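Fold this sequence, please.
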Amino acid sequence: MSVGRIDNAPVAKPMMEQEFRFRPIKKTLAGDITVAYNEPPVQVLDCNGSARNVTLPVAAAAYEGYMFMFFNISGTAVAATVKDAGVTIATVAQGKAAIVVCDGGTWRAMTGA
């Protein structure tokens, strides 16, 4: 079972183990970031006092079903803005989260608590 896909289709093994648990990575941001497909799908972000942009990898058919979960744990009221090809698809406020899923052509977002 592959962790990075929601349809459980076999794919090349990503950086995390192929098991059904997510290994989060915590990042204290010093600037804007770009995430890659081989990074852990759970990203715990500290924006470090400033609003930050999080750029997703290019959506492609080969990555249909991949997802990322972003949690903003910043100590101040700053947002992490998640972008696909320069277009904002989610704004993650302090203490909030967003899930983004690649449909093979674009990224789709769900935001909330």
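DSSP finds no helices and nine strands in the chain. Residues 25-112 form a domain with the Jelly Rolls fold (CATH 2.60.120).
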